[in-house]
Amino acid sequence: AMLNMALCDQILEIDPKEKIIRVQAGARVEQVLKALEPYDLTLENLASIAAQQMGGFLQVGAHGTGAILPPVDGQVLSFRIATPAFGVIEMER
Asked: How many whole angstroms separate alpha carbon 38 and alpha carbon 20?
C-alpha cells in the first residue's frame, strides 16, 4: 500500500539554538531547506530531488558520502508514528 502524505507537510518547530527541526513526513526537502535558511542552517545530507518528501527521503535509506557524512537517518533524533493497532508511538534515539 502507498500512503499520500501531501496533507501532512507542516514545519512544526525550529530550534535554531539546538539546531533541531521538527517536521511532518509529507514536508518536502525544499520546504525544510527554505524554513532553515533564515537561521543560516541546512540539512547535513541533501536529497538530489528537492521535491521529495521527508518521510520518503528517510525511508529509502539515503546514504552519506562516506565516513564524514552519515546516512540521512543518522540525523533523526526521534519520530512519531500512528498505527492502527498500537496508537501513536514515539521512538527516540
From this structure: 14
pLDDT of 3-29, one tens digit each? Answer: 788 899 999 999 999 999 999 999 999
Asked if 21 and 35 touch (Cβ cutoff 8 Å), the reply is yes
Note whether 24 and 49 are within 8 A (CB): no
Residue 29 amino acid letter: V
Per residue, the 3-state secondary structure of the chain, as one string, reads CCCCCCCCCCEEEEECCCCEEEECCCCEHHHHHHHHHHHCCCCCCCCCCCCCEHHHHHHCCCCCCCCCCCCHHHHCCEEEEEECCCEEEEEEC
pTM given for the model: 0.84
